[in-house]
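Supplementary material to the annual report.
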Amino acid sequence: MIHQIFETDSRLTSHPVFRAHLMNTASTPISESMGPAGAEPGGSAIAASNSTPAFSPLYQQIKVLILQSLQAGEWKPSAAIPSEMDLAARFKVSQGTVRKAIDELAAENLLVRRQGKGTFVATHAEQQVQYRFLRLYPDNGDLQSEGPAQRQIIDCKRVRASSDIARALAIRQGEAVLQVRRVLSFAATPTILEDLWLPGAQFKGLTAERLRAHQGPMYALFETEFGARMVRADEKIRAVLPDAEQRALLGVNGQTPLLSVERTAFTYNDAPMELRRGLYRTDTHYYRNALN
Amino acid sequence: MIHQIFETDSRLTSHPVFRAHLMNTASTPISESMGPAGAEPGGSAIAASNSTPAFSPLYQQIKVLILQSLQAGEWKPSAAIPSEMDLAARFKVSQGTVRKAIDELAAENLLVRRQGKGTFVATHAEQQVQYRFLRLYPDNGDLQSEGPAQRQIIDCKRVRASSDIARALAIRQGEAVLQVRRVLSFAATPTILEDLWLPGAQFKGLTAERLRAHQGPMYALFETEFGARMVRADEKIRAVLPDAEQRALLGVNGQTPLLSVERTAFTYNDAPMELRRGLYRTDTHYYRNALN
DNA sequence: CAGTGGTCTAGACCACTGG
DNA sequence: CAGTGGTCTAGACCACTGC
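Predicted assembly:
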């Protein structure tokens, strides 16, 4: 229990609500208003969840609550979330506490703050950089000089998950998954060959036609059409030589080493939502990484 | 227009700071004309430099001042910087403002906060992860299972900078640079071949013997012996095939593609301080990257 | 103009560290 | 125990946005 009345000396202290961080119970915070005052209708999702671990600062709890609202779809991608004042009132904390929670969510690219306008749910669609997760850059010229990538959907079919695909997606072997293969070209040169696997349940109805019809990043389509928001990803990178089929699709010979990029993309709660295996040509482009 | 108050300081020799935001009634509004202490020592780049005139928030200015003290070596690596209260007094701002500045510096891995102890200058030596900038992980087992890397210094010589080396290090072509070649082995298997170039002026006295004698990360040696603190780096990654010499040093054949990792490491003020070209074996290891 | 996020301050209390 | 960073609050004002 987080709200605790903990006072012995009540001089002038307000702080009727003293949030003591006790390792006592793990129940979730905020909603109980002390005393008869608020009797707020209570965030439904808020009262329900109680899986959060031991104790955490108030702003971390607020962060979890906001996260739950995001996950539940209470605020859609690119929509504004309530103002800091509103959230402070809703959670019965100060604006500064809400601010710190939002600060962290913004740092994790889940929210975007815009001064004078509000705080918005981040999306893969309205990025100034079209491909937020793509780290491939041309050797010469900037990102825009090549113009947008040309996308070619080779294939989109329903298959059963092999053991490694299942493991990566945290599903059972043999479950239905959608497998997509596509090629990205820059300046008319095939540069990226990607195979990707998506859980069949969540992506029911995804077809090659739908992929071809969509403009913009694939992740934006996943957001709007399938409610699958990729919030972070891990990549394992290796150098490989292509097999015959890969050579044909990329138009390279067998002596052209390629970058193998295996990406696992996660949605909220670190749930894996996509496995992607990419082959990148690095004779005209390079993979950029910033170390901090 | 923004009302600026150049708050010259009377007692402690603190750095003057632009008060871009006027909110305090207590302070007598010194008029625009610089008052009595117009001859303030020009030590503060903020007061002195108008090349970056824009009025940044107070905490950003504090951040710059702390950065300058770090760069000037006022606080050595792994040493504690003054407490937030002390810094607040020194800069004549509130503790909260100092805190926000330190928060950002900690987020950039320049400082490390330790509750109850203080705030410390980050270092490459005392990392729990020995190699902070190395993203190569073994396919099987965790980081520690392999034990520490075996380091073999092949060469360390003084050469003249070629045009591309000079460009990367922001020096003139033909200037002296130190060139080091080494091999890192894991579990007795040569895995990383690295060539690196360092500006000769800063690294005067670096020898192969000294590199061999040193225990721990090379960047730790650079910090303590040459005052060169690498704070961030950029990497360009490609897939390549090794030439004969590289094959011999790594013990691979000509059909083993390798990861080419070209790293530029920067010290304070985004000054490049090292160029490093690495070849990584990725048949037993992989390069890991986190996308956020 | 009102509403939003952004900055700054002041003060209180917490948790942790070490003498 | 004193000193440190960590959290939380309350209130003020600033800068930006859009009606």
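Chain A touches chain B at residues 107-109, 132-133, 135, 232-241, 255, 257-260, 263, 280, 282-283, 286-292 (CB under 8 Å).
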